[in-house]
Structures are given as C-alpha cells and as structure tokens.
Design goal:
about 525 residues; alpha+beta; 9 helices; globular
C-alpha cells in the first residue's frame, strides 16, 4: 500500500506498540534520539510500523552459552526440542554457532538489529557479539570482514529448518525530516539477512530453498504477500526515499543481487580488491557458488527463493553450482593435471580438503592465508601459480616454521588445517515487511531453509573426493622437516643447518685453528 506523506504522518495514532521479548540492540538509542529531537525544527521523523524485534527460541535450545564453542540447536518444533532431555542435539536439524574469527561471538549466535542509521538498508539479521575494533555491540554497519554473518549449520538434508523471529511495532526512524511536498512513498522495512550457510549434512548439496512464513514444523504456513505484506525483496534497486533519504537525484539503494545470493568465501573465489587490494581468491578470481538462483516467483516480491533442479544442457550440472567450483579441472585449472572434478557439488564438512596456511604475524589467535591444498596425491598451489605442484624444497622450508598454538613466534609461520570455506556459503537475502503486516495476527515470522542433497557416487560431481580414499590422506607438515634440522626452525632463513644432538667432529677445531693462523699472518704482513 502506498501513501502520501500526510497520511503516513498520521500512522503513529493508528498503530500502538506491540512488543514481544526484549527490544533490539538499538531500540534504547533510537528512543533517546527521538526524544531529543522531537521538538526541534528539522528533526528526524519517526513512524510506528511493523518490525522484527528479537530472535525467538520457540523451537531452539542453547547449550553452553558461556563457552566459545557452544551452540544453539534448531528442532522441528518445541515438542521435539523438549524431548531432547540430554541436550545434545538429538532430533535437531541444524545449529547456530558463535565461534567467530575475532573470538568475540556470543550466545545465541544470532540477533536482530533495527534502525541502524549508518547502514544503507537500516536493518539486518546478523551474528551476535562484540565488534573487535570498537568494543561495542555488533551491528549492521560494522566494517566488511568483521564476522557479521551468523553461522547456520544444516545437519539434516532435505528437511526444513526453521528460524523464528518475534514481531512487533517499533519506531521507523528516517534519516531526514519528511518533506510534506514530496511525492507518494512506501512505508516499510527491509532486513538484510547476513548469514553463513554451512553444509554439515555429510552429503553434497545441489542447492537449497529459503521461504518466509509462519509457524514451525508441520504447522508452518507460507506467507502470502498480497494479504500478509511480507516477502523477500527482489528489487535490485530501491528508492532512497524508502529509507528516509530525500534527494533530488535519488539513484536508489542496492538491495537484491541474484549473482551474490549464495557464494563461497571471496578468499577462495573472488577478486578481493574491495577488502584487500591486489589480492585474489585462492582457487579463482571469479565468484563461485549457487548463483544465480533458478526459481523465484514472478514480480518484485517472492515468498521463496529456490536453487531449483534444472539441468544445464552444456555442463550437465543439476542446479546453479558454478562451473569454477564444480569442475576446476576443465576450467581455471585446465592443463594442470588434476584428475576428474576435485570439488563437484557443494562439499559437506565431512569431506573437506586440507590446506597449508601461512600466518603472517605468527599469532595462533589470528587466521592464516591458504597457500597450498592437498588433491589426494600432491600439495598444489592455487590459480595464481596455475595449480602447480609444490616442490619438496618449499614444503621443507614451510615445515621448519611451524605455528605454535601457545605463543606468538617470529613470522611467517605455517600450519595444516581443513579448508572450511569450501563447505560454507555467504548467503544474502532481503526480507520486506510492509506497513500492513499484522503483528496481532502474526506475532512471529519464520525463515525456513531446506537443503537439496545428492547421494554419493550416483552422478558426475558426487564422487568421493580423492583425498578421502584410503592411503590418500595428506601428510603432516612435520613429515617434511629434515631429520638433521633439530630444534631450529630458522634453518632456511639463517642459511645454515645445525644439529645440537650430532656427535662432536674434531675437524671443526682444525679448521678454526687454521683460520685464526691465517688471520695472524695477514696482520703481520
């Protein structure tokens, strides 16, 4: 429904406040800002409109909330949750974790943020915790790369997973005063869903479906935009006036981008010019993932977004997995000698490849950079070195500089670990909530996820990875450490080798005496 500004100004008298649960992290600050500016000419304008208030635990259970490795289990419904008396996740279909690279994640791992005026879309669903730079509560406008994505790990494929949020009416704060002479405009909110979608099912995935609706489990009811005024936003550009920014040259705000719907980490696949100038993704400098999604409803709003099961006539790929992930051997790694499709359909964490990471500050608390990966028979570089096999000399040099888990050492340092970015997608969707959404009829809103799996060794791209075969496990990095290197980890950097446990050699004294004699003769001459 569209309104003139005059009718929109009258909305606070029509909509009373209806809040379930605690307020959003910015609610107190918003109320203070409204109070301070209410009587000032040119002050911010606020309206009371529907909003997401908090995450709901109606079908969830958080265990070990004070531990960094705690998690929030998601069950089909409250009955299944309550039956898990051991609180070990029995009957759950997914979990949310708050283990962030910064170490500053907090239970329950997810939060709602409303009215962050420094964020282009104003609202978001994101990870809960503290920002490492500011020390403040995490919010939508934190810098890119600051662990804003909440981590949803799916453990049951082909079964719906429900995330539930409490709804209510809250202040809609406009960045600029409303101009009574402006043209008609929309009233509503858009929440950016900032998440990491992790495949922990044990099976490969061809894609997934995401829906918006009400209820959980068998009681889930899909939303109807025509009557419920809630859906996924499909407009790629939304006028700034919707977000309270009034400009004569309104070029809109970027919102939905199909090509960024579900992508692998840019550290693996992408040009990183925006975050780290001059760096590219390890496996390719083009994005990879499940993009674009194949199946959405017509129009600029949709109740669901689905990866679909269409078969690409040229590649034979089911769904939208990009070829640079599905079949590196025939694309960016062509001619490198890789066998088959090393990755295929989206890997689960149970089938992840192993990599060698370089830590450029020697600190075990920070994340290293991938420098090589194990293909089942060889360690290989990434696309910038044309997937060449890493030499034994290089492996020996890395092995002499192990990363300590207990102390900061002189960098660079190296360690072996699973490449977990290969089983996780950065997913970006946008929930539209219009002013006619009825919070009395729907005091919660549900996001439903359903993963589409493929059985192993049934079609091309579903093969068991070469590195999982018996006898093909990656060697330990320490296996490449020369036996005569002893306890020194700086041999290559010092240009010599010394073994304190080697037997004493008297030749050393003879050579030393000869050198001293030579020096004396030169001085006398």
């Amino acid at each position: 429904m569209r309104h003139t500004i005059e009718s929109a100004i009258q909305r606070p008298g029509r909509a009373g406040t209806h809040v379930r649960g605690a307020s959003s992290p910015l609610a107190a600050a918003t109320a203070m800002a409204v109070g301070l500016t209410a009587g000032i000419a040119g002050a911010q304008t606020t309206l009371q409109v529907p909003a997401l208030m908090t995450w709901s635990d109606v079908n969830a259970l958080t265990v070990n909330p004070d531990a960094e490795d705690g998690r929030t289990y998601l069950y089909p419904d409250a009955v299944t949750r309550d039956a898990d008396t051991d609180q070990d996740g029995t009957g759950s279909r997914a979990f949310i974790s708050w283990t962030l690279d910064s170490g500053l994640g907090e239970s329950p791992g997810i939060q709602v943020v409303t009215n962050d005026l420094n964020f282009p879309r104003r609202n978001c669903l994101m990870a809960s915790g503290t920002d490492a730079t500011s020390g403040e509560r995490k919010t939508c406008s934190d810098p890119q790369g600051s662990s804003k994505r909440f981590r949803l790990a799916i453990t049951e494929p082909d079964q719906p997973v429900d995330l539930v949020f409490n709804t209510g009416n809250a202040d809609l704060v406009y960045a600029d005063p409303i101009d009574p002479t402006a043209e008609d405009f929309e009233v509503g909110r858009i929440y950016r869903v900032i998440q990491k979608y992790i495949n922990d099912t044990g099976k490969r995935l061809t894609g997934f479906r995401i829906e918006v609706g009400f209820g959980t489990g068998d009681s889930f009811v899909p939303a109807d935009f025509a009557t419920d005024d809630v859906a996924f936003e499909l407009r790629t550009n939304v006028p700034r006036a919707f977000f309270g920014e009034y400009r004569e040259d309104d070029n809109g705000r970027k919102v939905w981008t199909p090509g960024e719907y579900a992508t692998f980490s840019p550290a693996m696949f992408d040009v990183l010019e925006g975050r780290y100038p001059g760096e590219t993704g390890f496996f390719d400098d083009d994005i990879a993932g499940l993009v674009p999604p194949q199946d959405v409803e017509a129009g600029d709003k949709t109740q669901y977004i689905d990866s679909g099961d269409d078969v690409d006539g040229a590649t034979g790929i089911v769904g939208p997995t990009t070829v640079n992930y599905f079949d590196m051997s025939a694309n960016q790694a062509a001619g490198a000698g890789l066998a088959g499709s090393p990755l295929g359909y989206m890997l689960p964490v149970q089938l992840l490849p192993t990599g060698i990471y370089e830590d450029d500050d020697g600190d075990p608390a920070t994340e290293g950079e991938l420098v090589a990966w194990w293909d089942g028979s060889d360690w290989r570089y990434g696309h910038e070195q044309d997937f060449a096999v890493v030499s034994d000399d290089q492996l020996k040099a890395w092995a002499k500089r192990p990363l300590s888990e207990d102390e900061v050492l002189e960098p660079p340092r190296y360690e072996i670990g699973l490449i977990d970015d290969m089983a996780g997608l950065n997913v970006d969707t946008f929930i539209y909530i219009g002013e006619d959404f009825d919070v009395e009829a729907h005091d919660t809103l549900t996001l439903r996820f359903t993963a589409h799996s493929v059985e192993s060794d049934t079609i091309a791209g579903s093969e068991t990875p070469a590195w999982m075969a018996a006898g093909s496990e990656p060697p330990a990095l320490d296996d490449y450490r020369p036996s005569d290197s002893g306890g020194s980890d700086d041999d290559d950097f010092l240009g010599c080798s010394y073994n304190p446990r080697a037997p004493f050699d008297p030749t050393v004294l003879v050579l030393l005496a000869a050198a001293l004699l030579g020096m004396g003769l030169r001085r006398r001459a």
